[in-house]
Amino acid sequence: MGYQERLTGHGIRGTMSTALNEIGYPKVWVDAQLSHVDPNKVSATYNHAAYVEQCRRMMQDWADRLDLFAQNQVEAASMPLTVHLEGVPAFPSEQTASAPSTPVAASPSLLVTKPGDAMPLVSAAAHRLPAVPPQRSAAPLVPSDIQRERMDLFDVFEAPHNLPVAAFAKMAGKSRRWISYEIQAGNLLALNVGNRGQRVPDWHLDPLKHELIQSVLKLTRGADPWQIYHALLQPRLVLRGHSALEGVTASNLDKRVMAVSTAVKESEWTPLRVGVV
């Protein structure tokens, strides 16, 4: 009949058959659902086909009772049934010769009633639970400080002025292989984040800015490219509140190179706040 304290297979079938009988369904209805165990295949097929509608009603009633149990309506869910199927025609084997024929309703419904009561206590259909429970609205995830910094870093990396190597090579009129060589030689500032490839700021397309960046790269060998990048964009008091890239000329180039190089060396001794300019 099953494992300890667990019903399986025939145990479940026997329990449900007993429950349906105790609820009040006619024995012939319940027995017809066990037609598969009838050795006579002809009668088994007949019983199975003749009681399909009753099977559907019992299955729906069973599901409705489970829904009522789930809603803590134990009394209504456990109530014995006075069989009253609105709109379901009685089968010939269950009709009397003198019974007048009644029109069939469009949608049969099963009413749970107390024995002897004239009016239904509860319509099971009104208490049916949805087949799929409503999805709970997930609370919005609040990113941590590290996640926000990482997202800011991605935004900076994918800024329009930071070009992929292939796009920069095309804009510079050079081959991609040559640009890769220049990056390895430390002549071009190249940014990278994980496996997203490298990006080169389009500042290198301006001759004066290109010379400024190359001079800074030579004075800060081995420095983090991101530190150099932020140092180039950071406004400075010595530059009257401007960044090194703003208003660079041949006459003020050396001053801006020294300002950026000093800032990069100082940042090597302090934590870098990525994405914060």
TrEMBL record:
Keywords, alphabetical: DNA integration, Plasmid
PANTHER family: PROPHAGE INTEGRASE, PROPHAGE INTEGRASE INTS-RELATED
Protein name in UniProt: Integrase
BP GO terms, sorted: DNA integration
Family stated for the protein in its record: Belongs to the 'phage' integrase family.
Domain of life where this protein originates: Bacteria
GO molecular function, one term: DNA binding
